[in-house]
Write a structure and sequence with these properties.
alpha+beta; 5-stranded antiparallel beta sheet; binds fe (ii) ion; 3 domains; Molybdopterin biosynthesis moea protein, domain 2; two-stranded antiparallel ribbon
Length: 358
């Protein structure tokens, strides 16, 4: 378990607090189970408490939907979860160590990247369809693993060489490392950043380049990806305002994975976008912000309806997506609820997903 700080303003009213809390004189400030309210928030602030901590686990379960999946898929998911969890703890340790002591073990990071590449080679479909099992929240370390996973899937779909896939896996893990130099009050601020704060935040790209290239001695391409991952192809990004042709293709790929992962993540103040909506969003910014051909390639290879998604078909039936067909993200296999019937949308071409049910 990893502890995460949550600022009081980030906790919505009505949220039950998971533990007892005392002030420095050992007087109880709140009892476990008490719900957050404006009064409680004020009381805590008067006692100089500005954040609470919470334990987070990198997973949410597929809960009641897991029963629809095949035994063998559940087994694969378990293996993927194990790998994911391990990567999460290792990268968290590296980032914490870097934040506190400016130390990072490059070999560990390389091993995490390689571990993910190998694991994805063995369980590609599960990873491509993983949205349903990952716990989505704003936690930076999870985000870096997610981006790395998406980059590996992306790179494999483009038949990149194995050394290039390793590079982009590592770049995915480290692209936001510059954020370790941004103070928490800006990094974790739940409200909209002021113009000044936004400018400070933008520095994470150049800090990232400097850390990776000069401080840690990574090769140019990995540092360059960190520098370029907020550039836009129309030249209106940062830090250099580079246009499409001059941005490295790997950086353009990270930009897409970064945005996709961010919008499909749950935040305290916003709900996660479902993948099929996120894909529409990506298409809406393709051609100006991100590269059109690359977005198409990306969308083709990630599950638009991840395993566990509840859907309504044009036959009027409701079902759960239990499998994705490679290269056909819109045509998964659907288990009809309350029935033994299974529909493989790849062979039943007149059957379509009409909508996603919550
Ligand atoms: Fe970033």
């Amino acid at each position: 378990m990893i502890m995460k700080k949550i600022y009081l303003s980030e906790i919505p009213d009505g949220t039950p607090i998971a533990y007892d809390l005392y002030n420095d004189k050992n007087i109880i400030l709140l009892n476990k189970g008490v719900k957050m309210s404006p009064v409680l928030r004020e009381k805590l602030q008067r006692n100089n408490i500005i954040f609470l901590t919470t334990q987070i686990s990198p997973f949410e379960t597929l809960d009641d939907r897991i029963k629809y999946l095949d035994e063998e898929v559940i087994h694969e998911i378990e293996k993927v979860k194990k790998q994911y969890k391990e990567a999460f703890y290792q990268i968290s340790r590296e980032f914490e160590g870097f934040k506190d002591y400016s130390k990072l073990d490059k070999k560990t990071v390389t091993d995490i990247g390689r571990g993910l590449v190998n694991s994805i080679s063995n369980n590609q479909q599960v990873y491509a369809s993983i949205q349903g099992i990952r716990r989505k929240d704003s936690y930076t370390y999870l985000h870096s693993i997610d981006v790395s996973i998406l980059m590996i899937l992306f790179g494999k779909s483009m038949n990149l060489a194995s050394n290039e896939i390793e590079d982009i896996a590592i770049a995915g893990l480290l692209h936001d490392i510059g954020k370790t130099k941004i103070q928490d009050s800006i990094l974790l601020k739940p409200e909209k950043l002021t113009a000044d704060e936004e400018e400070t935040m933008k520095n994470h790209t150049t800090y990232g380049y400097d850390i990776l290239k000069n401080q840690l001695g990574y090769k140019e391409i990995i540092a360059r990806i960190a520098r370029e991952h907020h550039e836009k192809i129309n030249g209106k990004g940062y830090p250099d305002g580079k246009r499409g042709e001059t941005i490295h293709i790997f950086s353009k790929m990270v930009t897409i994975c970064d945005i996709y992962d961010a919008i499909t993540s749950e935040r305290v103040y916003k709900k996660a976008m479902l993948p099929h909506v996120a894909v529409e969003y990506l298409m809406s910014i393709a051609g100006t912000h991100i590269d059109m051909d690359l977005v198409r390639q990306f969308i083709h290879n990630i599950a638009i309806y991840p395993m566990g998604t509840k859907v309504l078909l044009n036959t009027g039936e409701e079902g759960i997506v239990i499998k994705n067909n490679k290269n056909f993200p819109l045509r998964p296999v659907v288990q009809i609820i309350d029935s033994q019937k299974r529909r493989n949308l790849l062979s039943e071409l007149t059957v379509l997903i009409k909508k996603v049910m919550e």
